[in-house]
Amino acid sequence: MNTDYAIQVRNLTVSYGPKPALLDVSFFINKGELVGIIGPNGAGKSTLMKAILGFVKRDIGEVFIFGKPVEHTRGLVAYVPQRGTVDWDYPVTVHDVVMMGRYGHLKWWQNETKEDHDIVDRSLEMVRMSEFRNRQIGQLSGGQQQRVFMARALAQGAKILLLDEPFAGVDAATENAILDVLSEAKKAGITLVVVHHDLATASEYFDKLLLIKQRLYAAGPPSLVFRQELLTEVYEGKLKVFTDLIKD
Ligand SMILES: Nc1ncnc2c1ncn2[C@@H]1O[C@H](COP(=O)(O)OP(=O)(O)O)[C@@H](O)[C@H]1O
Ligand SMILES: [Mg+2]
């Protein structure tokens, strides 16, 4: 294992049934990289996220977070839920949701300190949601809720954020807002791993891409991953927008 890597996956196989969802997948991600995971439906993208969080049972293989087995790295990796997947039927403010990220750091007899409040404020600033701090979370758009969850993950002290299709179904303004937040987080040294379904923007948005369909077909800079023979093999007939995407 190499402790310079934020994430290292070695020979990972995960099965729910007889056919593995992921088969012998190995790669690494450097600290502070913004990485996109691409591949068709059912390719195992979400399963890979769960494996990086330590949420699925592995048949074979290892996942290291900053050089330590994922089981011993609680709190360093945070999952940002897809927008609209959380149904808020009780009143809680944006500030409260982000403060929840601090609770893991507090003992039961401790109150929130000034430092906790400062961290919450800074996290809200980073995702550009400070002006909404007193708003009920249920009254925000899906894209705004997603930014609040990113702030909570940052307040928690997570060094790696995983986002599963954050751009699915958002309008252009929200897409730009999320992109801004990703680049802010990257500037702050956070490592970001994003499942992304839109090939047309993948090479523009990410430093590095992982192309998966059960196996890892390619990993590296977009120019290396966007090769005709690779995309044809992985997407088969499902790839329509094509010729403008290929760089070779
Ligand atoms: N909890 C589960 N139980 C059984 N099969 C699952 C489960 N989750 C995912 N799968 C199967 O594993 C494969 C990969 O799924 P998933 O990781 O969700 O792919 P993706 O996110 O790329 O669409 C699919 O064939 C899917 O049907
Ligand atoms: Mg998925």
From TrEMBL:
One of its GO terms (molecular function) is ATP hydrolysis activity. Residues 7-239 form the ABC transporter domain. Keywords: ATP-binding, Nucleotide-binding, Transport. It comes from the Bacteria. Belongs to the ABC transporter superfamily. This is ABC transporter related protein.
